[in-house]
Design goal:
Layout (H helix, E strand, L loop, with lengths): L4 H7 L3 H28 L13 H9 L19 E4 L4 H4 L6 E11 L1 H5 L2 E9 L1 E6 L2 E6 L8 E6 L7 E11 L5 E2 L6 E5 L2 E4 L3 E9 H8 L28 E7 L1 H5 L5 H9 L5 E5 L37 E5 L14 H15 L6 E4 L14 H22 L3 E2 L1 H5 L13 H14 L10 H19 L4 H4 L19 H23 L7
Parallel strand pairs: 12-13, 12-14, 14-15, 15-16
Antiparallel strand pairs: 1-11, 2-7, 2-11, 3-6, 3-8, 3-9, 4-5, 4-7, 9-10
Length: 526
């Protein structure tokens, strides 16, 4: 233990004082321990963690399984009488659902007397292959939601007061991710224990398949930036003849750092809006600074469809996209290794385009701007651009193969000083990029003096959008710190003020957007 200098000085002077120093040091230790004990008592450790991330399969099930939406198939009021029946225990894929992997729901109604309903109850379901969640009368009583428990015997205590006289419903959601699955233990393992009495459950149960394994796996691969988008019943039709805006619509920008930064300047939106003054265009920059075609990371619960165990789900509404710009390729060209090559880039980019097919056919691709060495630090921009050119060719080929418009910033901006550090576009670089986008899409690239007022309003609107799209202190908003007092009213505890502030931000954004439409040039150049 590090000793206080004063104590050390006293200790080395005289034996008597040394004794006093020892007593003083002991006293200090005792006081310190007591203080720590007092702090520990005043701030007890929570019995449970504030956040428990949902298991992988549960997140997928909550997203796409029909019976799990609002836990609809767990409710006592749900009518399962038209479901088929299956003898339990058994493996469903060898009984009545051949070759089925995924979610299967089982429900059973039992009658209890008043005495039985009052008894201490334990629900025994034997072994379930692979995973399960079980409800009694709409209340969860247990579950194993991670793989590896197919030999685990399920014994779930039923909370007192949950059972009732008359009809009681048991619902079991079984998840099988391969090989045989089901409530597949021994018949003698299936029963409801009611004190000294038992109700056998090894008999006919109603069942219905939920989301299959293909649907679950497909959702697992959905890119993070697609979660905020509304998936329409029918995708928006593709461009007929090149890039053209017809009618009011929402335009989304997806990409990495340069795409995300473009909204700070508003030049792209200004040029497109000024060209289409009769249309009410809503621009939403959903680009994320670190996004690549390979990976898009988002905060926990970001536009998640499932409710976390520790608080609210992200309540922000999804957005219907009419036209989408994709701006990728620069950071990907810097990645090394056989798994990060122009070929893998093509595969990953094409996977994004395939998923966008379910939303809209109106997609335009933007190639990255070239590298340079504006700071004179010795970047080998020639070598970097030689490598980047392969990625640009890939983007152009993908666009041509699909008949999509493509803007080639790499070719148009090469030789111009357009970056601040060799990678990120400078202020002037963003202006030149916006002009290149407008020109190559077939409309005026001239930023007139009269457009500066419009651009200023657009920049203000984009600032509001960033506050809404990338809110600070996410953990307190919809993340794993929602239980903290700082995310709630200090007077009443409810409502939580943070989500209410976000709603106001959206309202302010919509007002600013209407102001933009009023400021558009009166002459129609469509």
């Amino acid at each position: 233990m590090k000793m206080h200098p004063l104590v050390y000085f006293i200790q080395v002077t005289t034996p008597l004082v040394s004794l006093l120093a020892s007593l003083l040091a002991s006293l200090l230790i005792i006081v310190g321990v007591c203080a720590l004990h007092e702090v520990a008592e005043s701030k007890p450790s929570p019995k449970e963690p504030n956040s428990t991330p949902l298991p992988h399969w549960t997140r997928l099930i909550m997203a796409v399984d029909p019976g799990s939406q609002g836990e609809a198939w767990t409710k006592t009021a749900f009518n399962h009488s038209k479901w088929k029946t299956m003898k339990i225990p058994s493996h469903f894929d060898t009984a009545q659902l051949p070759n089925f992997d995924g979610v299967v729901w089982f429900r059973k109604t039992i009658e209890l007397s008043p005495e039985q309903a009052k008894s201490k109850a334990i629900l025994h379901l034997g072994q379930i292959d692979d995973m399960d969640v079980t409800w009694v009368n709409g209340t969860r009583v247990g579950g194993y939601e991670n793989p590896g428990h197919h030999y685990t015997v399920r014994n779930y205590p039923v909370p007192a007061g949950l059972l009732k006289t008359g009809k009681n419903t048991i619902a079991v959601r079984v998840m099988d991710h391969g090989a045989p699955g089901g409530i597949a233990g021994k018949p003698e393992q299936l029963f409801l224990e009611l004190g000294k009495e038992t109700v056998p459950l090894a008999n006919l149960w109603h069942y219905a398949p939920g989301a299959n394994l293909n649907a679950l796996n497909k959702h697992a691969k959905i890119h993070a930036f697609l979660r905020p988008l509304t998936r329409p019943a029918k995708p928006v039709p593709a461009f007929a003849k090149g890039f053209k805006i017809t009618g009011d619509q929402t335009i989304i920008l997806l990409g990495g750092a340069n795409a995300a930064e473009s909204s700070r300047y508003g030049w792209i939106e200004t040029l497109i809006s000024a060209k289409h003054p009769k249309h009410q265009l809503s621009f939403r920059n959903m680009a994320w600074p670190a996004d690549t075609v390979y990976q898009q990371q988002r905060p926990r619960n970001f536009f998640s469809v499932s409710k976390p165990s520790y608080g609210e789900a992200d309540h922000r509404p999804t957005i219907a996209a009419d036209t989408i710009f994709l701006w990728f390729g620069k950071m990907e060209s810097l990645e090394t290794g056989s798994e990060k090559s122009p070929e893998s880039f093509r595969t990953s980019y094409e996977a994004i385009l395939n998923q966008l097919d379910d939303y809209t056919g109106r997609v335009a691709l933007i190639t990255p701007a070239p590298f340079e060495d504006p700071l004179g630090i010795g970047l080998d921009s020639e070598e970097l651009n030689t490598n980047l050119a392969e990625y640009v060719v890939t983007i152009r080929e993908l666009a041509n193969n699909r008949g999509l418009p493509v803007v080639d910033l790499f070719a148009e901006l090469k030789g111009n000083p357009v970056t601040s550090d060799g990678q990120m576009l400078s202020t002037e670089g963003h202006r030149l990029a916006a002009e290149a986008i407008a020109r190559q899409l077939g409309f005026s690239s001239q930023l007139s003096t009269g457009n500066e007022t419009l651009r200023g309003t657009i920049v203000s609107k984009n600032a509001l959008w960033r506050q809404y799209w990338l809110p600070t202190n996410w953990a307190f908003l919809y993340g794993n710190r929602q239980t903290q007092p700082s995310s709630r009213s200090h007077i009443r505890g409810k409502p939580r003020w943070f989500p209410e502030d976000l709603k106001k931000s959206l309202s302010d954004l919509e007002k600013m957007e209407k102001k933009i439409w009023k400021e558009l040039p009166k002459s129609d150049t469509d």
